[in-house]
């Protein structure tokens, strides 16, 4: 049998998440407006919740573009991030460390909308 690889430690996962956020922020250089990014695992349950959330965000702030999975999502992830025009980012919701049960990973759309209003005002 082939040797098994080591599991990633929690610190390495957090560093990778930070690097990914920086990469997302860097890819948005030159953008003139804020953007909301929803990263979710490609499971059906995650997709349904992301669709409901993106719809709520578009209704509340139609001037903000909402991107769903602009890059390949991490396994089991559900995050909502606001990318600002100056290149900084603000995390509106993260469900990575939440659960079980799985339903704790997903926010109520109104919670995220309220958080978004805080950062936009």
Automatic annotation (TrEMBL):
One Pfam family cited in the UniProt record for this chain: Rdx
UniProt xrefs under InterPro entries: Selenoprotein_Rdx-typ, SelWTH-like, Thioredoxin-like_sf
Record keywords: Acetylation, Redox-active center, Selenocysteine
Task performed by this protein: May be involved in a redox-related process.
Gene3D superfamilies attached to this UniProt entry: Glutaredoxin (3.40.30.10)
Name this polypeptide is given: Selenoprotein H
Membership in a protein family: Belongs to the SelWTH family.
